[in-house]
Structures are given as C-alpha cells and as structure tokens.
Task: structure prediction
Amino acid sequence: MYAQVTIIQVPMDRISDLRHVIETDYLPIVRNRPGFLAAYLLEQIDDPDSAQLVQFWNTQGDVENFHRTGLLESSVQSIAAYLPGVQIKRQGYIVRTAVRGAAVAETVG
Result:
C-alpha cells in the first residue's frame, strides 16, 4: 500500500473553502481512479489554517499514473487555483504495517 500526505497551509480563515474544494472538486475525481483506496482530510485543531490530506493507494505506480493524466483537476495543485496563497507540500510513503479494526494487524508489502 502507498500513502500520499499533502500538507496544506491556507490563508487565514479559509479552511472551510479548502474543505469545500476537496469535497466537491478534487475527491470526486480521485475516488474513481484505479488503485485509489481512501482519503482523509485532517484539519489541525491548534492551527485552524493547517490541514493534511492523506490518501491511500494500492501502489505508488497508481498515484503516478493518476498524476500523468495532466488534468489540473486531478492535481492537488488545482487547490491553489481555487485558493490563491495556499501552500502545499506533498510526501509519499510506503505502508509496510497497518492495523485495521479492533486489533487486527496486517503486514503489507
């Protein structure tokens, strides 16, 4: 499994705009892509202008294929088009260990 974490800093008091763009414009496109598993938008409690978008994919190749589409809507950078001044940093991780449910451990990879 592959996880992509996007760290997002929005202009002051624009977190609700970020949430709207991700829910209505970005995730509906992403969820239909091959290999996509899940996504979570994490809004930071002690910094109301910071968030992380965590996406899980079957493989890193699935994410790379998705980004190769070249469509602005398929890119996290599309958020910047809707929210000028937003700062975005993306990181990728291989998920080697995961726990699901009430203590069911699984090793991935």
